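> call design_seq(struct)
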């Protein structure tokens, strides 16, 4: 059974993961309209991954005697300043999610909820991978700068990208 405090923290995280999914979906649509087919495919897939993160939390809350809530979400921005700005946003967002996950892990220890602590380790590992990939893509974009041919290749690489085993981004 989860405590009310842990249940609330998990439900707050449900809302954040769901918002991430919406944000990536809006970014995917923006990229598609720009003709960045690979970036769009990558972001659509990532939006699905964030929905999976949401559902995993919801199912856990209910399994542990809580009640998972479906959050109301604000509309994400329709426009991006550019591809670099979009990926900077992604990294910022993932760093923020990592901090949220760590705060829940901390709460679990304070509440002596070792079951939820164990469950959250999946998210801890996931965030390491998500931040790593976001940094890696941002480094590439930094190298590309304003080079259109470089952006073309970046987009094409993302189109053919295979997921490493266990990665969710
Ligand atoms: Fe579910 Fe990208 O954090």
């Amino acid at each position: 059974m989860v405590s009310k405090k842990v249940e609330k923290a998990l439900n707050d995280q449900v809302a954040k993961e769901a918002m991430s999914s919406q944000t990536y979906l809006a970014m995917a649509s923006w990229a598609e309209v720009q003709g960045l087919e690979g970036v769009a495919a990558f972001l659509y897939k990532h939006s699905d991954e964030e929905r999976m993160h949401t559902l995993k939390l919801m199912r856990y809350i209910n399994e542990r005697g809580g009640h998972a809530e479906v959050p109301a979400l604000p509309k994400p921005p329709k426009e991006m300043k550019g591809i670099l700005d979009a990926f900077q946003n992604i990294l910022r967002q993932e760093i923020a999610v990592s901090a949220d996950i760590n705060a829940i892990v901390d709460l679990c220890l304070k509440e002596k909820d070792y079951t939820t602590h164990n469950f959250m380790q999946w998210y801890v590992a996931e965030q390491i991978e998500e931040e790593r990939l976001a940094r890696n893509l941002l480094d590439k974009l930094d190298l590309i700068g304003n080079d259109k041919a470089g952006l073309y290749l970046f987009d094409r690489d993302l189109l053919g990208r295979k997921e490493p085993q266990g990665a969710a981004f």
